[in-house]
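Re: beginner question about structure tokens

> Can someone show what the tokenized structure looks like for a real chain? I only ever see the sequence side.

Sure, here's an example I had lying around. Input first:
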Amino acid sequence: MIAFYITAHGYGHAGRSLEVIAELEKHEPVTIVTEVPEEFFRPRFQGGYRRQAFDCGLIQKDSVRGDVLATLGRIQGIMSQSGRLLEKEREFLDQARLVVVDSPSLPLQAARAAGIPGVALTSFGWDYIYRPFAQRESAWNEVCDWFQAGYHQATLALQYPFSAPIKEGAETVPLVARPGSNRRAEIAAETGADPGKPWAVVWFHELDLDPRSLEGLPYELFTSMDWPQARHSQAAFSDIVASADVVVSKPGFGIVSDCIANDKPLVYVPRADFSEAYLLEAAIRKYTAYSRIEPGDLYTGNWFESLEQARTGRPKLPPPPQDGAAQIARRILRV
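And the corresponding structure tokens:
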């Protein structure tokens, strides 16, 4: 059995991990350990599931702004239980042959204690995200050191393109992203969206914005948020992206990968409190057509100029290797 531990920081990590897990399940049973709800993985995943947290990511005020103070309190609470959690996981891993993480670190320590390999598969470690916070509050140094100590226990570290290396000697693997299918006519018939208008995928789980500020925008808006003008489709997300003209989002690894895979322009809002954003902004500038929208314009609905600018741009470089789930699974199984 392979124990696959996934951070509950958004669904991006869980989504890409699920692609790799689907490949691993062709060879060995997998148990997922995470706080991401079990319903997210079903019905594509048939294996075991345990609900447990070993990190808290960055607690969010909304999809753009983080709550650094609340995050510190939550992760210190997890760290205070680390001895009990480590022993519990070591016992659980008596049933396992291998551990994979994206991106908790304590399970790698548990794997080492259980005498089995541990694989880190990720785009960053939490020590990388949290370290700048230590300039405001020194307690973050202890948090970063705790995560780093766990990552150093990995038998193998695999990193995606445009990532922060989790440990020395990490191997770069392809993106877990694949182009969707353009189903614009079907989606228009399903949702009532005007196929003659430009379509924008608005990819935020939560945004502190009054949707009435976007009422004059001459775009069809596809989003999971409960906006009066929103279009909601049952199509696969990759197909919605492939069918749209532009994406509006924060610089998150998953959505950037989807834009690259589908050759879609991206309007992105900067995230000052999330270190990975700087790596992703560099990737956006290389591999996508894009524009940057400032928070003031995002939250007041002043989107039109940014949308039009992104749609007229061109990527600077060809995309990095993609659709890497099967290749990553093979590499993991060789450990």
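Each token stands for a local structural state, so reading them left to right follows the chain. The mean pLDDT is 95.
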